[in-house]
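Figure 6 in text form: structure in, sequence out.
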């Protein structure tokens, strides 16, 4: 059994799922609510927190965990995805160079976000796992364009490792955060393999499956499917690792599939975003004990906001022990959605997070 260690000395069994707490909050929940869903960790966004709070304010606290009074694990992304999205968007202003990402957060102000800056902010936030800045391969990139992003990702990974080692010099390895190198390369398996191997050569021990994990179906350019081939290439290319992170993954069945390939950390906006739209995940089972995640259709969706539910006195799921399922009826939840009360988002989010924490419990049982 593999563990995830936190800077506060906790050892958490893997696999772990980290819901999205972009701006140091899981929308509509407080830290106590998150704890009660048995969620062990959350993911915060470096760029947003840097922009919202600023380095000085973050530095006044003992990390994001103190700001939120969150005692579980916290991981951060590099912030690159947001910055790149600004630059690479249609009317984006700025450019990506080997030095870093040049962009304009406001019309007048030019800023540069580079590998060193990303690592410095993440260390200041004292998150348990931090990510080296990477250059995102678009899923439609041809070999040449993809190779360019891989080369830049590796160059930035080298610089990230250098500053990480410098800033954490003298700290015992148990008290350092994990440093994750991101494997880019899109659909090009040769590049995925190359990127994985070179990161390992640079001394990385933890890796992330980067880019959109999607692949166009041959002959059907509008149909996108989960890219298991790259997931497989990545897990086969790395001989030894501490953390193998499926970045932005994903749907419950994709998590089960990637866990089989050796991935042990996941994060995704889906459970919280879907909850706010009244889309609830429900196990197709009569009790938690009877859930079987190896079955093809082990769960389905329940649309909480339908008016017909106003008559229904049953709970949303018998295979769930969250606050919503223990205490309230489908009818009451439908009513809360109908009148747009914020408690509808809270209860639905609590339920979906418990669905994902149960999924992790089931996968832990399978890992032995
Ligand atoms: Zn529930």
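Output sequence:
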């Amino acid at each position: 059994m593999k563990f995830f260690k936190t800077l506060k000395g906790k050892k958490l069994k893997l696999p772990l799922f980290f819901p999205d707490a972009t701006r140091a909050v899981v929308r509509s929940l407080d830290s106590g609510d998150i704890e009660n869903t048995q969620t062990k960790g959350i993911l915060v966004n470096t760029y947003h927190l840097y922009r919202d709070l600023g380095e000085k304010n973050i530095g006044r606290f003992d990390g994001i965990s103190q700001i939120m009074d969150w005692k579980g694990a916290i991981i951060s992304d590099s912030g690159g995805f947001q910055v790149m999205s600004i630059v690479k968007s249609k009317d984006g202003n700025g450019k990506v160079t080997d030095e870093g990402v040049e962009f304009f957060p406001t019309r007048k102000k030019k800023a540069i976000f580079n590998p060193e800056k990303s690592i410095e902010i993440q260390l200041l936030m004292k998150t348990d796992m931090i990510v080296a800045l990477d250059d995102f391969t678009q899923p439609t990139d041809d070999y040449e364009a993809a190779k360019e992003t891989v080369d830049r990702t590796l160059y930035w990974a080298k610089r990230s490792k250098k500053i990480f080692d410098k800033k954490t010099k003298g700290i015992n390895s148990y008290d350092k955060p994990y440093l994750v190198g991101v494997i880019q390369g899109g659909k090009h398996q040769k590049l995925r393999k190359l990127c994985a191997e070179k990161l390992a050569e640079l001394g990385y021990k933890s890796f992330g499956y980067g880019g959109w994990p999607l692949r166009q179906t041959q002959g059907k350019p509008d149909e996108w499917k989960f890219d298991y081939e790259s997931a497989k290439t990545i897990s086969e290319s790395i001989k030894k690792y501490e953390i193998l992170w499926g970045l932005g993954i994903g749907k419950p069945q994709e998590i089960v599939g990637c866990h089989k390939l050796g991935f042990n950390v996941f994060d995704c906006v889906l459970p919280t975003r879907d909850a706010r739209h009244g889309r609830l995940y429900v196990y197709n089972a009569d009790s938690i004990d009877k859930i079987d995640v190896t079955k093809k259709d082990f769960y389905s969706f329940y649309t909480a906001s339908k008016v017909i539910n106003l008559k229904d006195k049953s709970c949303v799921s018998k295979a769930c022990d969250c606050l919503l399922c223990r205490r309230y009826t489908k009818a009451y939840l439908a009513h809360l959605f109908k009148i747009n009360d914020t408690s509808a988002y809270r209860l639905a989010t609590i339920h979906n997070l418990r669905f994902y924490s149960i999924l992790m419990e089931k996968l832990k049982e399978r890992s032995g």
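Caption detail: The chain has a mean pLDDT of 94.
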